[in-house]
Amino acid sequence: MGKADVVIINSISKQAFHQLLSSNATPETAVGEPVEWFADRMETIIGTVSVCGRSQGWTYAILRRDTMGTFRVFDSHERFRTPHTARVMLLREMVEVDAPGAERVAA
Question: Nearest-CA neighbor of 43 among 26, 15, 63?
Answer without folding.
Answer: 63
